[in-house]
């Protein structure tokens, strides 16, 4: 079997499995309703034939009342069938619409789960982002488009069966001709579908840029700067230009499709008109009844519509498959750095060791870390200091396992990080990133997410809030710990930057991890409060490894050991007093910063 067909059937299985997982009863019910609807075409055709023949045979006869009873029965039967078809159509639409919404809702979960299971190096790749944004943009409608078309195939199949029976019994060649004139349309649709996919693929970057501009225009966190800078008009013009280019291409593609489809329809219209004339000439000549002529015409039209629907469904399935195959590609992605299987010990006995670690980011020509070597003992607190770009945050990222070292090893409690189960290893880390998350949910959740297994432990959450001096702020909110932390929700408030930082720090401390990593944890807090918070943090983490990154040298003085990073390697290390006596770069930076406070 060709690889393209294998890919198609693999994608088909994935999508049907997804729909079945979401709601098996709805999927089955929609398919059955569509099938039965197509099958009811046959009795309607025969009833119409009999009706016309009965009426013609009763014309001019004095005993016409004899024909009234069968007429009433036939019309009543046809009305019942048409009512059933109408009801089925309505229910099929509603059920399909509900299934669409369920699939769309589930897609958000599937995309979110998968995205967060991948490694950082994959997520930050420009090529991945281009393709993922297309998946994110197209997946919902394309997945349902594929499922909907597949569920319509039984309808088309049974419509064909209903219509082909009278045609074959009269003249099989007519059925063959009806099928042949539908093939050009199917070929055109398939070619145009592939062309659309290729054209949209070229616009991935523009769609992504469009999304970023929209984010800066519509996200509340950008309102203040937009108003001050007065850049709204510039951004809207920039987005208009992008939209114009994208939508113009969509317009051209749509017009091309309409033109080609119209040309492909011409043979079908010519054949339909010819068959209509042929059947009624036979009726005039007395070779067939008028009812049979009418039935044969409608049967040929229904047969053509059935094959047209089938080909269109197949074409639509193929069209959506091209986009959905990107979705299944995304679902099939594996982390670039497979997780190990070791479970970390409950207590670290050997600490952390960087052995001649070199690292540079993908697509970067320069090394960020150059032979970094350091050892951190269990229960030791250290501070990393240095100018911007020295490699402080990169060191933390490697310790978290976000990237593997390009060269060298990182050992945690005697084992390389890659040997540990990624999920279990990260459970031992409590990290406050410089660009931390601001959860808009309740204050309880915003702190409790630090240890999701203990989200209901309000006492522990309050204790963490007290440790970072944010408890009183939360207690004064209208709903206290159940208060939303955004103005966009009812009774919600917007914490200040300093309050957000205290909440994020409380979330990190609530985690009760073996390693606590704080990257600029009090950059938005005033110096007096910062000193108080650090005193508490050092006391609270006496039995843990504490790694602190800070540009404020007044706070790092309390660390057991201070490491100065320059150009991706450690150039000085020791206590504050030792480094001041050394009177090298650290001492100069300390004096320079102290001078700015005088």
UniProtKB/TrEMBL annotation:
Its main location: membrane. It is found in: Cell membrane. GO terms for cellular component: plasma membrane. GO terms for molecular function: ABC-type oligopeptide transporter activity; ATP binding; ATP hydrolysis activity. PROSITE patterns: ABC_TRANSPORTER_2. It is a multi-pass membrane protein. InterPro entries: AAA+_ATPase (IPR003593), ABC1_TM_sf (IPR036640), ABC_transporter-like_ATP-bd (IPR003439), P-loop_NTPase (IPR027417), Type_1_exporter (IPR039421). Keywords: ATP-binding, Membrane, Nucleotide-binding, Transmembrane, Transmembrane helix. The chain crosses the membrane at residues 15-37, 156-181, 277-299. The keyword Ubl conjugation does not apply. Residues 352-592 form the ABC transporter domain. It comes from the Bacteria. This is ABC transporter related protein. It comes from Candidatus Amesbacteria bacterium GW2011_GWC2_45_19.
